[in-house]
Design brief:
The chain contains 3 helices and 37 strands. It has 415 residues and is mainly β.
Length: 415
């Protein structure tokens, strides 16, 4: 793979401290209509403009997710039960969708319909009648809505037989055919188990902005998937299938740009986020690739800013064998993708870190966390004029340093 390696000396020369200041984050937001759903003390809140409002009480609310039009929120409730709920913002009325449906759920990209999956069964409901499933499909390994919202892209469940695991089939399922496997459209069959490829499941599926490609992780058995999974792409017609790289089982760590066929991901095996994690960007059609993480550093989360820039959460790489005990707090860096130039957005600190960068039109948000308290910061797209916008956010779960901040924070920004 041809790559654009940014050496440490060049990085230190290019890094520029961009002062944050203490300005009111509302001044940065300007006229943009920005709403955040967040979790505080296990309860669900929203912030709109400069007003905060509690919407639903816990215990242990997590995973707030907006409907496509910003009129509904879906969320989970309960640390172990994972009840699935929907809430209509205009009435603040919550409704239970399913007492066990909160593990995998997704809003339709075009309607107020919510899909969820339990034990290999996929169902979807209308948000206004959440207790009446509109369709059901069995034997589903994982799924995502089609970009049009008129069906699903799904994988089958692999089964262990005496001669090995059955291959995984990728389907396109028209919404009217849900439940009738004879009408599922086979897009591609993944390779059988071999020394070069082993998968018994998949992650969710993510479509490129041009609609030509689908990215996903092919995952081995649970004990292996924590450390290494195969990042794959398949063309929308199923003709072309490629394995791209190895990475951890973290669906937040691969994302398409909002235009074209550019895919960014955090590469590197091993479950620790503090070692061997590199930001790479690939133009899938041409296979032109670039790497942006300097030697002795790790990248742990990122956000696209158009096709020209990216913001990444970066930290000094921990020493081999030290695990998380010597993990450094991450800071934000803005990368120019064409030439590799990089600039500091937040200053490296031994007191707090900058996590989960989120691009919001002309703004940039992230989580500031010091090991005990978490706040949401808001700045302009270059990271300037930063200020606290939400205080006392619940602390997200971390798996070997892989932080799941979307479980407690979700933005809706109207265009």
């Amino acid at each position: 793979m041809k790559s654009l390696k940014i050496g440490l000396a060049m990085l230190l020369f290019a890094l520029v401290w961009m002062a944050g200041g203490t300005e009111d984050a509302e001044a940065v937001k300007g006229d943009n209509e920005l709403i955040a759903a967040f979790v505080r003390n296990g309860d669900l809140w929203i912030k709109r403009n400069n007003q905060e409002k509690k919407l639903a009480g816990g215990p242990f609310i997590r995973n707030p997710r907006w409907s496509f039009d910003g009129k509904w929120l879906a969320y989970t409730k309960g640390e172990f039960e994972k009840e699935l709920w929907v809430l209509e913002l205009s009435t603040a009325r919550s409704s239970l969708v399913h007492p066990e449906g909160g593990s995998r759920f997704q809003w339709s990209p075009s309607e107020e319909k919510l899909a969820y999956q339990m034990n290999g069964q996929l169902q979807y409901v209308d948000a206004r009648s959440p207790n009446k499933p509109l369709g059901t499909a069995d034997g589903i390994g994982n799924y995502s809505w089609l970009p049009s919202g008129d069906g699903f892209f799904a994988s089958s469940q692999s089964e262990l037989l005496p001669d090995g695991w059955t291959p995984i089939i990728l389907y396109r399922i028209p919404i009217k055919a849900l439940g009738d496997i004879s009408q599922y459209i086979t897009v591609h069959v993944l390779p059988k188990q071999s020394d070069d490829f082993f998968a018994v499941g998949t992650s969710v599926f993510k479509w490129s902005a041009d609609g030509r490609w689908i990215a996903f992780l092919a995952t081995p058995t649970a004990s292996l998937s924590a450390d290494s999974n195969t990042l794959c792409v398949v063309s929308a017609d199923g003709v072309v299938f490629r394995t791209l790289d190895e990475m951890v089982n973290n669906a937040q760590w691969f994302e398409w740009a909002d235009r074209g066929d550019h895919l960014a991901y955090i590469a590197g095996v091993g479950r620790e986020a503090t070692r061997n994690k590199q930001l790479r960007v690939l133009a899938v059609t041409t296979e032109k690739a670039a790497e942006y993480t300097p030697k002795d550093f790790v990248d742990q989360a990122f956000a696209w800013q158009g096709l020209a820039h990216m913001v990444v959460s970066r930290a000094v790489e921990s020493k081999e064998g030290s695990g998380l005990s010597e993990a450094a707090y991450p800071y934000l860096v803005r990368v120019e993708l064409e030439n590799g130039r990089q600039k500091l957005i937040t200053k490296p600190s031994k007191k707090h870190g900058a996590y989960n960068p989120i691009a919001l039109h002309s703004m940039l948000a992230w989580v500031k966390y010091n090991g005990a308290e978490a706040d949401v910061m808001l700045a302009d797209e270059n990271g300037r004029h930063a200020g606290e916008w939400i205080k006392r956010l619940d602390i997200a779960d971390s798996y070997y340093g892989q932080w799941n901040w979307p479980a407690v924070l979700s933005f809706y920004c109207s265009k």
